[in-house]
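Hi V.,

You were right to ask for the full record rather than a summary. Here it is.
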Amino acid sequence: MIEQADLRANDDDAAYRRLVERLRRQGAEIGELTRELDDEALSRRTVPDKWSLKELVCHLWRLQRLFEDRIETMLTKDNPVLLPYTSGVDPDFAKLVAHDATETRTAFLVEREDFSSRVDRLEAAQWLRTGQHPGYARFDVRFQVEYLVHHEAHHIYQLFQRRLQLDTLLR
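Predicted structure:
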Protein backbone atom coordinates (compact mmCIF):
# COMPACT_ATOMS: atom_id res chain seq x y z
CA MET A 1 0.00 0.00 0.00
CA ILE A 2 1.28 3.46 -0.89
CA GLU A 3 1.79 5.74 2.10
CA GLN A 4 0.51 9.33 2.17
CA ALA A 5 4.09 10.59 2.65
CA ASP A 6 5.15 8.74 -0.51
CA LEU A 7 2.30 10.32 -2.46
CA ARG A 8 3.27 13.80 -1.21
CA ALA A 9 6.91 13.16 -2.10
CA ASN A 10 5.88 12.10 -5.61
CA ASP A 11 3.69 15.20 -5.95
CA ASP A 12 6.56 17.42 -4.77
CA ASP A 13 8.99 15.77 -7.17
CA ALA A 14 6.54 16.29 -10.05
CA ALA A 15 6.16 19.95 -9.05
CA TYR A 16 9.95 20.41 -9.02
CA ARG A 17 10.25 18.81 -12.47
CA ARG A 18 7.50 21.12 -13.79
CA LEU A 19 9.41 24.16 -12.52
CA VAL A 20 12.59 22.97 -14.23
CA GLU A 21 10.66 22.37 -17.44
CA ARG A 22 9.22 25.89 -17.23
CA LEU A 23 12.73 27.31 -16.86
CA ARG A 24 13.77 25.46 -19.99
CA ARG A 25 10.64 26.36 -21.98
CA GLN A 26 10.85 30.00 -21.00
CA GLY A 27 14.52 30.08 -21.97
CA ALA A 28 13.58 28.65 -25.36
CA GLU A 29 10.81 31.21 -25.72
CA ILE A 30 13.20 34.06 -24.91
CA GLY A 31 15.53 32.67 -27.57
CA GLU A 32 12.70 32.48 -30.08
CA LEU A 33 11.50 36.04 -29.39
CA THR A 34 15.00 37.43 -29.88
CA ARG A 35 16.24 35.25 -32.75
CA GLU A 36 17.48 36.57 -36.08
CA LEU A 37 17.94 40.09 -34.75
CA ASP A 38 21.22 41.97 -34.74
CA ASP A 39 22.61 44.18 -32.00
CA GLU A 40 20.95 47.29 -33.39
CA ALA A 41 17.49 45.72 -33.55
CA LEU A 42 17.77 44.05 -30.14
CA SER A 43 18.95 47.34 -28.60
CA ARG A 44 16.24 49.48 -30.16
CA ARG A 45 13.64 50.85 -27.78
CA THR A 46 10.27 50.49 -29.48
CA VAL A 47 8.49 52.21 -26.57
CA PRO A 48 10.04 55.41 -25.21
CA ASP A 49 11.41 55.04 -21.66
CA LYS A 50 10.79 51.27 -21.70
CA TRP A 51 13.40 48.55 -21.98
CA SER A 52 14.48 47.18 -25.34
CA LEU A 53 14.60 43.45 -26.06
CA LYS A 54 18.27 43.51 -25.09
CA GLU A 55 17.59 45.28 -21.79
CA LEU A 56 14.81 42.83 -20.96
CA VAL A 57 17.12 39.87 -21.63
CA CYS A 58 19.84 41.52 -19.51
CA HIS A 59 17.36 42.00 -16.68
CA LEU A 60 16.29 38.34 -16.86
CA TRP A 61 19.90 37.22 -17.01
CA ARG A 62 20.82 39.38 -14.03
CA LEU A 63 17.93 37.99 -11.97
CA GLN A 64 18.80 34.44 -12.95
CA ARG A 65 22.36 35.01 -11.71
CA LEU A 66 21.10 36.62 -8.51
CA PHE A 67 18.69 33.76 -7.82
CA GLU A 68 21.34 31.19 -8.66
CA ASP A 69 23.66 32.85 -6.12
CA ARG A 70 20.89 32.89 -3.52
CA ILE A 71 20.10 29.24 -4.12
CA GLU A 72 23.77 28.30 -3.82
CA THR A 73 23.95 30.24 -0.54
CA MET A 74 20.86 28.46 0.81
CA LEU A 75 22.35 25.10 -0.19
CA THR A 76 25.68 25.75 1.51
CA LYS A 77 24.65 27.74 4.62
CA ASP A 78 21.94 27.20 7.19
CA ASN A 79 19.09 29.69 6.85
CA PRO A 80 21.24 32.59 5.56
CA VAL A 81 20.04 36.20 5.51
CA LEU A 82 19.50 37.30 1.91
CA LEU A 83 19.19 40.93 0.91
CA PRO A 84 16.49 42.42 -1.32
CA TYR A 85 17.37 43.25 -4.93
CA THR A 86 17.07 46.80 -6.21
CA SER A 87 17.24 46.83 -10.01
CA GLY A 88 17.59 50.59 -10.42
CA VAL A 89 20.96 50.69 -8.69
CA ASP A 90 22.52 47.44 -9.92
CA PRO A 91 25.94 47.98 -11.53
CA ASP A 92 25.95 44.37 -12.80
CA PHE A 93 22.88 45.09 -14.93
CA ALA A 94 24.67 48.05 -16.53
CA LYS A 95 27.69 45.82 -17.26
CA LEU A 96 25.48 43.29 -19.04
CA VAL A 97 23.77 45.99 -21.10
CA ALA A 98 27.18 47.31 -22.22
CA HIS A 99 27.88 44.11 -24.19
CA ASP A 100 26.79 43.32 -27.73
CA ALA A 101 23.16 42.21 -27.67
CA THR A 102 23.63 39.08 -29.78
CA GLU A 103 26.48 37.92 -27.53
CA THR A 104 24.35 38.71 -24.47
CA ARG A 105 21.44 36.69 -25.84
CA THR A 106 23.64 33.69 -26.59
CA ALA A 107 25.38 33.81 -23.21
CA PHE A 108 22.05 34.10 -21.38
CA LEU A 109 20.69 31.04 -23.18
CA VAL A 110 23.81 28.99 -22.37
CA GLU A 111 23.63 30.01 -18.71
CA ARG A 112 19.90 29.24 -18.67
CA GLU A 113 20.55 25.66 -19.68
CA ASP A 114 23.33 25.37 -17.09
CA PHE A 115 21.05 26.84 -14.40
CA SER A 116 18.15 24.57 -15.39
CA SER A 117 20.41 21.52 -15.29
CA ARG A 118 21.76 22.55 -11.88
CA VAL A 119 18.25 22.94 -10.47
CA ASP A 120 17.15 19.69 -12.10
CA ARG A 121 19.84 17.81 -10.15
CA LEU A 122 18.60 19.05 -6.76
CA GLU A 123 17.45 16.42 -4.29
CA ALA A 124 14.00 16.85 -2.71
CA ALA A 125 15.47 18.07 0.60
CA GLN A 126 17.52 20.71 -1.22
CA TRP A 127 14.38 22.30 -2.68
CA LEU A 128 13.30 22.94 0.91
CA ARG A 129 16.51 24.62 2.07
CA THR A 130 15.61 28.00 3.55
CA GLY A 131 16.93 31.50 3.75
CA GLN A 132 15.70 34.64 5.46
CA HIS A 133 14.45 37.56 3.38
CA PRO A 134 12.84 40.68 4.85
CA GLY A 135 10.14 40.74 2.19
CA TYR A 136 8.85 37.18 2.43
CA ALA A 137 7.65 34.94 5.25
CA ARG A 138 8.49 31.76 3.32
CA PHE A 139 11.79 31.79 1.49
CA ASP A 140 13.29 28.54 0.24
CA VAL A 141 14.83 27.19 -2.95
CA ARG A 142 11.46 26.19 -4.37
CA PHE A 143 10.08 29.69 -3.73
CA GLN A 144 13.09 31.21 -5.51
CA VAL A 145 12.55 29.10 -8.62
CA GLU A 146 8.78 29.71 -8.58
CA TYR A 147 9.33 33.44 -8.16
CA LEU A 148 11.79 33.50 -11.04
CA VAL A 149 9.47 31.71 -13.48
CA HIS A 150 6.52 33.94 -12.61
CA HIS A 151 8.53 37.15 -12.75
CA GLU A 152 10.08 36.04 -16.01
CA ALA A 153 6.69 35.23 -17.54
CA HIS A 154 5.71 38.88 -17.11
CA HIS A 155 8.83 39.96 -18.97
CA ILE A 156 8.35 37.36 -21.70
CA TYR A 157 5.04 39.06 -22.46
CA GLN A 158 6.93 42.35 -22.70
CA LEU A 159 9.44 40.69 -25.04
CA PHE A 160 6.53 39.49 -27.16
CA GLN A 161 5.06 43.00 -27.31
CA ARG A 162 8.41 44.63 -28.16
CA ARG A 163 9.13 42.03 -30.83
CA LEU A 164 5.78 42.71 -32.52
CA GLN A 165 6.47 46.44 -32.46
CA LEU A 166 9.99 45.93 -33.74
CA ASP A 167 8.82 43.67 -36.58
CA THR A 168 6.40 46.41 -37.63
CA LEU A 169 9.13 49.07 -37.55
CA LEU A 170 11.58 46.89 -39.49
CA ARG A 171 9.16 46.16 -42.34
